[in-house]
Amino acid sequence: MSTDLRRQLEGGIETLELAHARYVLLEKALCEKHWQEAVQERWDSLGELIRQEPECEEALARLLHRAKVERWPETEPTHARVRELELLRTRLEALTRRRLCMPARSTARLGEVLARLHQLLARTLAPPVSSEELLLHQGDFKLDTTATLLLLPLLCFLPMLLVFCTGFVASGGLWLTLSQLVCSLMIPFLPFVCQMLQRHLSGRFWLTQKRLVWQPTGRDAIHIPLHAICPGGVQLRFTGSVEVRLVDGRQLRLDFIRGAKQLVALLERYGPASRPVASRAGTRPRARGMRQAQRRRGTS
Fold first, then answer.
1. Which pLDDT belongs to residue 240?
2. How far apart are CA 6 and CA 193, in angstroms?
């Protein structure tokens, strides 16, 4: 695009180019499986998109009007970029509506749809950690296939036990047949039951330099200062869970979480486990100096 055209549009091209880059990143985040967490990682970019959406709409409308008046050909690079931007905005609006389960007849424009997305995530994903704290690590639910394989035989045994008990108590064979039919229909849903059970036991966590925040699913957040953790009291379990022992004897389990190994490594680095050695090393010279002073007093 020529410099004269950029100057005539009074910065509108720069606004559209910046918005285009943010649209691409937001569309990519919304297409991911864990789209809420992906959008939260681009939280500032989403806020800037909402704030600059009126300017973007105005610049786009001004550019389209000029292209229509001057009859820009389809081969014009600027015209092609504008069409690409329009298609991207249309895809982004449809994808955001689908994520928000908005009705198709809704007349909300892209800016309003993005604002609703921002409000929804602000309510559901706002971490109980202030923006002034340095966030070291965070994570949420992660499905553990090993635990699922261990739970499946147990959940399969329960329907079989039900069939045995009902067949033993009932006098007729019809009841036994109906029980077998019900249990056979329940078996395909057992993996889903395992996943829901793990999700219920899991939650979200945030780690800063001073505290660990654990928010179980459907419950209030638990704030744990790092100095309240016992030295060596952080262990990683085979199910991907983290067990934390506190100095007052309590234990906390963070079950089925994403990034468990990194959490354990950071807790060992920033927790109290790294301080006792330094404190003990610092007391030895002091104790040695006190003994030397007592000997001098005794000889004097």
1. 76
2. 58
Residue 257: name the closest of 211, 220, 215, 299 by CA.
Answer: 215
How many Cβ atoms are within 10 Å of 201's Cβ, its own excluded? 17
pLDDT at residue number 253: 92
Query: 216: which residues sit within 8 A by CB, 6+ positions away?
Result: 201, 202, 203, 222
Number of alpha helices (DSSP H) and beta strands (DSSP E) in the chain: 11, 7
Residue 14 near residue 99 (C-beta atoms within 8 A): no
In this prediction the pTM is: 0.47
- CA distances in angstroms from 51 to 48, 93, 99, listed in the order given: 5, 16, 21
Q: Using CA atoms, how far apart are residues 206 and 135, in angstroms rounded to an integer?
A: 7
**pLDDT, tens only, 66-85:** 778 877 776 767 777 888 88
- Residues of the chain with pLDDT below 70 are 1-12, 74, 76, 104, 123-128, 130-131, 147-190, 273-300
Q: What is the pLDDT of residue 149?
A: 62
If we measure between CA atoms, which residue out of 186, 177, 195 comes closest to residue 156?
186
What's the pLDDT score for residue 236?
Answer: 92
Phi, psi (rounded to 5 degrees) for 129: -125, 130
Dmax (CA) of the chain: 106
Q: Hunting for tokens 């036991």 — which residue is that?
A: 201
Please give the single-letter amino acid code of residue 205. Answer: F
Find, among 214, 218, 272, 217, the residue nearest to 247 by Cα: 272
Calculate the alpha carbon distances from 76 to 20, 71, 82 in Å. 18, 10, 10
Q: Determine the Cα–Cα distance for residues 285 and 96; give it in Å rounded to an integer.
A: 64
